[in-house]
Design goal:
- The structure is a single chain.
- Strands 1, 2, 3, 4, 5 and 6 form a 6-stranded mixed β-sheet that branches.
- By secondary structure, the protein is α+β, with helices and mostly antiparallel strands.
- It is globular, with a radius of gyration of 15 Å.
- The protein has one domain: Phage minor tail protein U (Alpha-Beta Plaits, 2-Layer Sandwich), CATH 3.30.70.1700.
- The chain contains 2 helices and 6 strands, in the order H-E-E-E-H-E-E-E.
- A hairpin with a 4-residue loop joins strand 2 and strand 3.
Length: 124
């Protein structure tokens, strides 16, 4: 897969089909309306794999809610399950790990979120 296609392909896999599905943001933003999934690049972004391919890492940030007492953890678990299920159908993306729930700052607002890391083979 070409590096220019990765976020678009992942966004298409995660795109809402029902009114209850989370919004998908294929770029970094300075405001967010949870629940939402935000796509970005991981660390290391790219590294050599073979003479013809590089291994890239893409992150799905699952943003459940503003940080406050309540059902934030249940919403976060639902987002992780949604992402896992939708991405599992495409062998281009290899699940690597998920961080634990933590504070995620967007536009000076604290949210409950986690990050899911996927590996992807890049040509060129």
């Amino acid at each position: 897969m070409n590096i220019l296609e990765v976020r678009d392909k992942l966004a298409a896999l995660l795109a809402p089909m029902l009114d209850t599905d989370p919004n998908v943001l294929s770029s970094l933003v300075d405001t967010i309306e949870p629940p939402a999934l935000m796509l970005g690049w991981g660390e290391p972004w790219m590294e050599p794999d073979t003479a013809c391919f590089r291994r890239g890492r893409v992150i799905v940030t699952c943003v459940a809610a503003r940080l406050a007492p309540g059902e934030g953890l249940a919403t976060l678990e639902t987002l992780v399950d949604y992402t896992t299920t939708r991405v599992a159908g495409d062998p281009s993306f290899n699940f690597e790990m998920t961080t634990g729930p933590r504070v995620f700052l967007v536009g000076k607002v604290n949210y409950l979120a986690c990050r899911m890391l996927y590996g992807v083979m890049l040509d060129g």
